[in-house]
Design goal:
CATH superfamily: Mog1/PsbP, alpha/beta/alpha sandwich
CATH class: Alpha Beta
CATH topology: Protein Transport Mog1p, Chain A
Order of helices and strands: EEEHEEHEEEEHEE
Strand order of the largest sheet: 3-4-5-9-8-7-6
Number of domains: 1
Number of strands: 11
Distance between the termini: 7 Å
Shape: globular
Number of helices: 3
Length: 169
């Protein structure tokens, strides 16, 4: 299914099995005040994706590599020895995003976690995707999701038909 996000600025192709994460699970996985804006999961496989448009954090494509290295440095400072894939660029549908992967302790098991950033109309979109560390099929799926990200043509606010944070199309 296609998900349209952030006032029609970004599209992503998600498997039909992904739904909005339940409130209790969100509170368990993200036990802090500031949570990702969009949190989707496949409950059966325990795979998940998050998306946040950080409007206060400006980002252009020529700043992407530097910003990615800085985000990676912060994460690996918090979780030493966790880096699995060093920062790199991925060519998505008409856009370039930066990503890296790392392992973290999950509620039930160790997780493979991908963090990616993408400039969306001059702002940073920060996303994460993850699955169990041993879930090879899940790793492929979360990478496919990330690579399906597609920027939409910039619109004036009065041109945006739907103002929801996200919707399925």
């Amino acid at each position: 299914m296609e998900i349209v996000m952030f006032e029609e600025q970004l599209l992503v192709q998600m498997p039909d099995s992904f739904k909005e994460m339940e409130k209790k699970r969100i509170e368990d996985m993200y036990p802090y005040e500031e949570r990702p804006q969009i949190i989707l999961e496949d409950e059966a496989s325990r795979r998940f994706c998050t998306f946040s448009l950080l409007k206060a954090q400006k980002l252009s494509e020529n700043q992407l590599e530097y910003a990615l290295k800085e985000v990676c440095w912060v994460v690996t400072s918090l979780y030493p020895g966790s880096l699995l894939d060093a920062p790199r660029l991925a060519y998505c549908e008409g856009a370039v995003c930066g990503w890296f992967s790392f392992r973290v302790a999950g509620i039930e098991e160790e997780l493979f976690h991908v963090m990616y950033i993408l400039p969306v109309n001059g702002c940073m979109m920060l996303g994460t995707a993850g699955c169990a560390l041993g879930d090879a099929e899940g790793k492929e799926e979360v990478m496919r999701i990330m690579k399906s990200l597609q920027l939409c043509e910039k619109k004036f606010s009065f041109e945006v038909k739907r103002k929801e944070l996200y919707y399925k199309r």
